[in-house]
Design brief:
The complex is a heterodimer.
Chain A: E1 5-7, E2 10-13, E3 19-24, E4 31-37, E5 44-50, E6 53-57, E7 64-68, E8 74-78, E9 87-94, E10 107-108, E11 112-116
Parallel strand pairs in A: 2-11
Antiparallel strand pairs in A: 1-3, 3-8, 4-5, 4-9, 5-6, 7-8, 9-10, 9-11
Chain B: E1 3-5, E2 10-14, E3 19-21, E4 24-26, E5 32-39, E6 46-52, E7 60-61, E8 64-69, E9 74-79, E10 88-96, E11 105-106, E12 110-115
Parallel strand pairs in B: 2-12
Antiparallel strand pairs in B: 1-4, 3-9, 5-6, 5-10, 7-8, 8-9, 10-11, 10-12
The chains are: A mainly beta, B mainly beta.
């Protein structure tokens, strides 16, 4: 059983550019969530995908978008990058949703460190 | 909206000591789940322990236990016989149990340092 993997590990972009981050879910997991973790802060929920559809979103603007593929892997796209987008982006997978699925452990990837100059 | 507060930015204890990390939260929901996650320098977040709000019994996992006080909205983590490998950032997190479409709400974290 492979864990959650993310690519790339590090990325440097300039303001105004677009970026795509990738996540491969743990085997058997159908739900993927993305989080933004600024330096010295706790992760903040961006959105969640279940069966290729976004079914939950945090307080992030529309320039943060995503995709989930039939194999449950996922992408996070950020358009018009801003300096404040510099952060560690974490992907987490679990089996869900459903009334009890919030209790299911979320397995996190190692993250992608994005730096916007 | 839920909020999670961790009031201790950093704590340092000697190896083998017991340490308690504090967490309070605010919610109007009655059914929810609470978690403690550990984030070592390698960055990969790992689940330490979890608690169902409707269960009065405190969760335990080996050296890790929680003190869950629902009325006070408090969820502290106790680490017994602390080890050097426990050095990490610890995050308290809340998850509403209404279908699972919301993400985890995290606190700002406590940096725990175990001294040899």
């Amino acid at each position: 059983e492979t864990g959650v993997t993310q690519s790339p590990t590090h990325l440097i972009k300039t303001r105004g550019q677009q970026v795509t981050l990738r996540c491969s879910s743990q085997s058997g997991h159908n739900t993927v969530s993305w989080y933004q973790q600024a330096l010295g802060q706790g992760p903040q929920f961006i959105f969640q995908y279940y069966r290729e559809e976004e079914n939950g979103r945090g307080n992030f603007p529309p320039r943060f978008s995503g995709l989930q593929f039939p194999n449950y892997s996922s992408e996070l796209n950020v358009n018009a990058l801003e300096l404040d987008d510099s952060a560690l982006y974490l992907c987490a997978s679990r089996f869900g949703p459903g009334p009890q699925s919030s209790y299911n452990e979320q397995f996190f990837g190692p993250g992608t460190r994005l730096t916007v100059l | 909206a839920q909020t999670v507060t961790q009031s201790q930015p950093e704590m340092s204890v000697q190896e083998a000591e017991t340490v308690t990390l504090s967490c309070t939260y605010d919610t109007s929901e009655n059914n929810y789940y609470l978690f403690w996650y550990k984030q070592p320098p390698s960055r990969q977040m790992i689940l330490v322990i979890r608690q169902e709000a409707y269960k009065q019994q405190n969760a335990t996992e080996n050296r890790f236990s929680v003190n869950f006080q629902k009325a006070a909205k408090s969820f502290s983590l106790k680490i017994s016989d602390s080890q050097l490998g426990d050095t990490a950032m610890y995050f308290c997190a809340f998850h509403y149990s209404g279908g699972g479409a919301d993400g985890l709400t995290f606190g700002k974290g406590t940096h725990l340092i175990i001294q040899p």
